[in-house]
Design a protein that fits this description.
single chain, mainly alpha, two-stranded parallel ribbon
């Protein structure tokens, strides 16, 4: 049997709590999505993902307000959409940068990750993006 060269982990419930995502990240993105769209819709990356969301919804054209309502609806129904996840990720990035919240990692997970990295293992995270 060959030696282990890489470790793949999940985030929710493995390296950190499910409640952080459910109770902190999702509500944060939902609350800030309207202002984020209005403020950043002219940026190429945001415009791209808004276009992708509209395409996914079968919309030929949509106003910012219609897109906001669509995306909030998707958040509320826990829709798995790459476009939505990309936009949420940008909002979360802003939140981390602005210190609106701080992620945690379980102490035992941190120890294991540090140990594996010191052993030269390649570390990966698999996430559905939910």
């Amino acid at each position: 049997m060959s030696a282990i060269r890489a470790i793949v982990t999940d985030i929710e419930g493995t390296t950190s709590s499910i409640s952080f995502v459910k109770d902190v990240l999702f509500p944060y993105a939902r609350e800030r999505l309207p202002a984020f769209v209005v403020t950043h819709a002219d940026k190429p990356e945001v415009r791209h993902w808004l276009h992708e969301a509209a395409r996914e919804a079968g919309l030929v054209s949509a106003s910012e307000q219609e897109m906001i309502e669509l995306l909030i609806g998707w958040i509320d129904s826990d829709r798995k959409s790459t476009a939505l996840k990309a936009l949420q990720g940008m909002i979360w990035q802003d939140g981390y940068r602005d210190s609106a919240f701080r992620a945690h990692i379980y102490a035992d997970a941190a120890r294991c990750l540090q140990k594996w990295a010191a052993m030269g293992k390649t570390l990966y995270v698999y996430s559905s993006g939910s």
